[in-house]
Amino acid sequence: MKTPLLVFNDNGIYCEVANVYLDPWKPVDCAIISHGHADHSRYGHKKYITHHTNVPIIKHRLGDIQVSGVNYNESFVINNVKFSLHPAGHIIGSSQIRVEYRGEVWVFSGDYKLEDDGVAVPFEPVKCHAFITECTFGLPAFRWTPQAEVFNDINTWWATNKEANQTSILFGYSLGKAQRLLKHLDPNIGKIYTHGAIENMTEVIRPMMDFPETTRITRETTKKELLGNIVLAPPSAHGSTWIRKMVPYVTASASGWMAFRGARRRRAVDRGFVMSDHCDWQELLTAVEATGAEKVICTHGYTDVFSKYLRSLGLDARTENTQFEGELNELDTKREKEVEA
């Protein structure tokens, strides 16, 4: 039986012909990295290859690593296997990884979304024979509201809190979600303050993107300064001693999980805004169809439901286990603390 071009093993997604891994979760000699989130770009590889805008991001997170950057649609060859990176639309610097060998083409999507968020280069479908797709929100119940409507709600919420002389605290993951929120907040309402973890990451990205002005919260920042303004903070800050000095405040979370009834109450936040950097159900189906792939491998998320539906459409769909977490990493307090450090 012919060995597939990409296989899943204990280290990650492996291309045996090239001796290269895609987003491996254990240390390997050569890793092609789709984007900067910690579940996809891990420490310990001898060599990293990624999109050039992701280079400063992963160096900020991982330290002194051997990494080279390439452009979108720029081909590079390793042991006669042709690789290229293509926009995934997930966060800034995120890529799909195209792998071609002897006329066979596979695409690993990493994490992706179809809506243009104004920060990441928008998703571009890549024709292939086999497509490896995430399924973070692979249930028919997940259908996102257009971004413009969500940000109108966020800015209205902030303005209402300002009228009540309250501080607005908005939680979002420090890489990706925070910059997306920042890009679309209305600075005419008030000042935008940031938690250190978010400010540190935004400083890395700011040379590549036009963002509103932000003010880092320090020990010298007073409660009076914050009143009526908005604070961007990682989920791990919720309930911490850091946040207690901001009373009176109103909290909100921006996450795809806010689509679940009861999610806001379980997170103990006052308001939930449904916003994800991943595809909803229909976007996943649209993306799969656009690739033209006959074979689809479903990873991390609602893999069983989504793969079963794809098989009902006549596709050769199956699931594979990975150590990717999708938007679950927004809830990982330990991971955020590592970033903050």
UniProtKB/TrEMBL annotation:
InterPro entries in the record: MBL, RibonucZ/Hydroxyglut_hydro, Xnuc_lig_assoc
A single GO molecular function term of this UniProt record: RNA endonuclease activity
Origin: domain of life: Bacteria
Protein name, as recorded: Metallo-beta-lactamase
Source species taxonomy: Bacteria, Pseudomonadati, Bacteroidota, Flavobacteriia, Flavobacteriales
Signal peptide from the UniProt entry: none
Stretches of the chain forming a coiled coil according to its record: none
